[in-house]
Amino acid sequence: MLEVRNLKAGYGAVDVLDSVSLSVPAGACVCLVGANGAGKTTTLSAICGLLPVTSGEIVLDGNVISGLKAHDIVRRGVSLVPEGRRVVANMTVEDNLLVGAYTRRDSQVGADLDDVYRRFGRLHERRSQYAGSMSGGEQQMLAIGRALMSRPRLLLLDEPSMGLAPQIVNDIFRTIREINEAGTTVLLVEQNVKKALSIASYGYVLESGRVDFEGAVNVLAQSPQIVEAYLGSA
After folding, report:
1. Are residues 65 and 38 in the same domain?
2. Which pLDDT belongs to residue 17?
3. Which residues fall within 8 angstroms of residue 34, CB to CB, at 6 or more apart?
4. Which distant-in-sequence residues (6+ apart) come within 8 Å of 1 by Cβ?
5. In terms of domains, do 161 and 65 share one?
6. What is the edge-to-edge ordering of all strands in the sheet holding 154-158?
7. Distance from C-alpha of 196 to C-alpha of 206, rounded to nearest angstrom
8. Which of 62, 73, 84, 111 is the most buried (most CB within 10 A)?
9. Residue 83 maps to a domain
10. Which structural domain range is residue 33 located in?
11. 92 assigned to some structural domain
12. Which residues in the chain come in under a pLDDT of 70?
């Protein structure tokens, strides 16, 4: 489904990524892990068209999408749940969700809104509440629900566990697993490596802008390099 080939991208004249390549098959849940500053968010931003690509290419369903505008990439079925959630604080929960469907012109938006409310009952209870008044966990639910409103085939999640209590993290990861099992392909960026490996089938380890290690999650979980660097305190 998604192929990232020898990708270089960054900010201004500085490339953060150095020839990053990764693959996300249709229907899979793939994780991209690594320390702060490794380039994980930069990778997602480039895939989404939020950052220009210096060289290399990003291919979705056999078509090159690097160079397209972000809204055109959303129309092709890619949606991002950004780091820090970034809900619109002075808009209601429901209006935030409807923003996620801004590229759509079909008649199923209402049905998909109902589906989000069924998945996240708390959002339905608070649909008229301002998003900025909700807890971090509720805002993360809202950010995921907003992304689902575009009907993505590929869902990108950037640090969904950040700043959340352990029980909320468990709930969020259970939801991500359910979304993937229902047919949505997932690329997950996460510092909580143990959690990421628990729901993914394949993983990439990013270090200083390069893919340092990759493999099936059972291989990664047993690698002394990964255990020492990430799993001992995860």
Report:
1. yes
2. 96
3. 40, 191, 205, 206, 207, 212
4. 24, 25, 26, 27, 28, 60, 61, 153, 154, 185
5. yes
6. 78-81, 154-158, 185-189, 29-33, 202-207, 210-216
7. 14
8. 73
9. no
10. 2-77+152-231
11. yes
12. 232-234
Q: What is the pLDDT of residue 226?
A: 86
- Could you tell me the pTM of the whole model? 0.93
How far is Cα 134 from Cα 89, in angstroms, rounded to an integer? Answer: 9
Determine the length of the chain: 234
Pair 174, 63 in one domain: yes
Distance CA 216, CA 213 (A): 11
CB distance 162 to 84 below 8 Å: yes
Give 37-54 pLDDT, tens digit per residue.
899 999 999 999 999 999
Report yes or no on 122 lying in a domain.
yes
Q: Are residues 166 and 193 in the same domain?
A: yes
What's the pLDDT score for residue 233? 46
In a domain, 70, yes or no: yes
The answer on 227 and 158 residing in a single domain is: yes
